[in-house]
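Page header: ASSEMBLY MODEL / two components / 231 residues total.
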Amino acid sequence: KAGVTQTPRYLIKTRGQQVTLSCSPISGHRSVSWYQQTPGQGLQFLFEYFSETQRNKGNFPGRFSGRQFSNSRSEMNVSTLELGDSALYLCASSLAGGVPKDTEAFFGQGTRLTVV
Amino acid sequence: AQKVTQAQTEISVVEKEDVTLDCVYETRDTTYYLFWYKQPPSGELVFLIRRNSFDEQNEISGRYSWNFQKSTSSFNFTITASQVVDSAVYFCALSKETSGSRLTFGEGTQLTVNP
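Prediction written out in full:
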């Protein structure tokens, strides 16, 4: 079956602009999580969406937002981009069925965002 | 608050050597899940194993084995007879969520296996 698909793979934006990243989870998966990976801070959790609702949120400013559609696809938006937002943004999906075997999260290849 | 520490930033071995990647975690939750992920140069994180806090049984999968010790809050990963294809960054992670989301990651260990 198809894996987690993230688009675009690479993106270059200018400071002050906004950007939208997209994530299509594995078919049947209802939970989508977003992570930011930078050399300095490592992998950090941004937020999780489940059934179109934000279920968990990490410690990021309000410039970072997201949403999930009825087909479980998710988008992440960053407004007023800063140089420090340059990172690899990873999306993960899971069944989230409430039993241990559903806790496995599958990751996409990420979107590499460069802010100049 | 949860925390995961991978003290080894980089490890370099020669092919066929055994290598152990260390992971120490902190959490106040009684139920939690521990994970290991592999990140090759392509970027995606590849799931290797999940352990819940009630299952301390060690696990072996081919050349991979994991040693979970609750008493020392450690979840170490051993690769036996390493191969060049094992070269990657390995992350240990912790979550209290049944969904496996909200993972707290360690800093990662860059493993280089030289021929």
